Amino acid sequence: MTRDPKEAALVLHRFGFGPRTGSIEAIAADPRAALLAELDLPNAGQIANPDLPSSGAANRAVFEYNAERNAMRQRERRETAQAAMEASAKENATEAKPEAPATPKPEEVPLPRQLFLKEARARLDAALKAEIGFVERLVWFWSNHFCVNQDKTVMAGAYEREAIRPHVLGRFGDMLLAAEGHPAMLIYLDNAQSIGPNSVAGINREKGLNENLAREILELHTLGVRTVYTQTDVTNFAKVLTGWTILPTASDPDHGGEFVYLRRAHEPGPQTVVDNTYPDTGTAQGRAVLADLAHHPATAKHVATKMARHFVADDPPPALVERLTQRFLDTDGDLKEIAKALVAAPEAWVPEQAKIKRPAEWIVAALRATGLSGDITRITGGMALLGQPLWRPPAPKGFSDDNAAWLDGLAQRLDIANTFAQRVGENQDAELVADTALGPLASAETRRAIAGAESKPQALTFLLMAPEFQRR
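^ thats the sequence. predicted structure below, dont judge the formating
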């Protein structure tokens, strides 16, 4: 078989996180087969790390940490007030002697920050160690599709491991159920506080319905905005989801923060959602609605369009969208089969690198190209500076997949690239890194710029900012 290093380099950028040393050569014999083979690897997409707590355990640990910190602050305030009173009394009795200034205690890294950095490190390592990174890219895609926000729940990293990764090559319907019923999602979209107006809890407490989760499931996660549902469907679906909440952490030290179905908060009676009527069967009522949404043709088209936009072009070819939509419907939402259909589609193999890498993808590509693992604090800080803070999307829609959203940040990328190159560039041969990272994709202009650079750091900066490195 004819070796095709150019197609191999394209595979690594378009479907993965960019080449590492030897990657282009390793898959050049059959780049497409290598891409498909990654889908068949054992435990593809999973992170097995016993040091990472479950979402419930993280929630409980942070709750106890915050409670202890609050108690400590209260105690310190009392002790400070008592010491001030004693000092005042002593001053009145005798001439006061100046006291030596207290040695400040080193600032500890707060537990929520520690958990975040551990989860971030595990996620980054999975991307750095992957041969191509196709499955990891799919994890990132689906995590953004079903996004939650770290600022609202400390479970964001655990949520990705528990709700997204186990289903990334499974059925869309299974991922949908896992995501919508996860405590992180119930907190992020306020369903944990949603109570049926006519439920026992709603009547007794005069609390009401919250439609956020129901609306975002219909608009963003399944059918797509302004498709086949109405506002009445949103309201009725919100009623179906009442009672989907979490155990209170303050009163349940063993299971607080975990999912629970609270019957007394559930709106009683049947509900009609998108032309189907569902009897009141507890959690089964919500699962039935989600199952029907997962099989709906509008969902298939919405998901296919998003996947084609992410991997191929802002305005994806209609033939590609149709092909992925049909594969979704034919396989009952088998995400592995849909990924294979994407690889098989001729529209996915145009030579033009039409998509700008999102900040996190670009950072990972730079680390893979240089063979570095990076400092996770610097990396997450860089992501934030570039407008893609990890697990902190600006809205439930997630981070944009359109090029226009990232064009304004290219100037900031230059600052990040220059800082990175100043720190590591003296130990890097930019021409060799270009061979690793771009190979035959490197243009003559990029090669000349690197060769003519005034210093090693400047040469590395030129490479990291080259159009063919910025794009996939």
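Residues 55-93 form the longest helix (39 residues).
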